[in-house]
Amino acid sequence: MSESRQIIERIERPAPRAFYERYVKPNRPVVITGATQNWKAIKSWSPEYFRSQYAEAKVAFTSWPTTEPTNDPTDYYRKRKRQTTTLGEFIDAMISGRQGSRDYVSQFPIFNELPQLQQDIESLEPYMNIPRAYPETLKTRLRKPATLWLGPAGIVTPVHFDSAHNLLVQIHGRKKLLLFPPQQSRSLYYPCLSLGHVNYSPVDVEAPDYERFPLFKRATPLEVLLAPGEILFIPVRWWHYARVLRAHDLVKLLVVLGR
Q1: Contacts of 243 by beta carbon, 8 Å cutoff, 6+ apart
Q2: Residue 127 — pLDDT band, cuts 50, 70, 90?
Q3: Which alpha helices (DSSP H) does 86-214 contain, by range?
Q4: Which of 146, 160, 158, 155 shows the shortest CA–CA distance to 173?
Q5: In CATH, what number is assigned to the domain containing residue 144?
């Protein structure tokens, strides 16, 4: 991987039309700042908060039972398992260190399970570019439900891309992300059908094996350190890799932003 990493642009509370024209249409990632300053979630949500208020909520988490010291995506996708527990039990184990360091609450449909928490955030629909004239049934289909992700420091999400635009809202803690444009897919050995998922790469982007993946030397990622309250726009088909820098919870809003 090239050492010349570029930094993703930050923009303060862009107007929805300007955001669409400057970033959505040209498929450019950007960090939006200042848009969540009035969210109650930014002030109150934390692992301790969820443990004290919603300990009995049922959650599913991804477990990666491995003895490998690295974050090899092939090992991850072959061995990962989905398990269920309560939010309180997961957080207790995570904080105490009993939980495996690679266990991760992911894709938890927070507002389906805990609808009262919807009032803790403000709508991001102005950034979704869904025409007002659309019938409500169509608008509903175009919106993806918000999901919460919760895990310990050091947990990673292997590099992959999604089939819709993402708005990733960091609520608590900090997160490092590396993004690669779709034009670099060959350097990420896409497609890799051996993983069973065409949108995943077999490359460990933080510790690449150049003997197995020599083309990855050509890759030039964009890097961002995401702080609480910041929103990262990840355009469709952009590759992204994430590492948690501190125990955190975040709401990842996967939405279709329109044409």
Answers
A1: 154, 155, 156, 157, 175, 176, 177, 206
A2: confident
A3: 87-96, 110-113, 136-142
A4: 155
A5: 2.60.120.650
Residue 236 maps to a domain: yes
Contact 109, 80 (CB under 8 A): no
69 located within any domain = yes
Count of domains for the chain: 1
Q: Which burial class, exposed, middle or buried, applies to 238 when counting CB atoms under 10 A from its CB (0-12, 13-18, 19+)? A: buried
The C-alpha atoms of residue 222 and residue 182 are separated, in whole angstroms, by: 12
Q: What per-residue confidence (pLDDT) applies to 131?
A: 65
Tell whether 45 is covered by a domain: yes
Tokens for 31, please give them. Answer: 């960090």
Instruction: Give tens-digit pLDDT for 181-197.
Output: 999 999 999 988 776 66
**Sign of torsion, CA 113 115 120 126?**
positive
Residues counted in the chain: 259
The Cα 80–Cα 89 span in angstroms is 20
Closest listed residue to residue 74, CA positions, set 195, 213, 212 = 195
Cα of 82 vs its chain's centroid, Å: 18
61 domain residue, yes or no:
yes
Element (DSSP H or E) covering residue 149? strand 146-151
> pLDDT of 56-102, one tens digit each?
999 999 998 877 777 888 888 888 899 999 999 999 988 876 655 68
Q: Are 242 and 104 in contact (CB under 8 A)?
A: no
Structural domain boundaries, residue 247: 6-254
254, 164 Cβ separation under 8 angstroms: yes
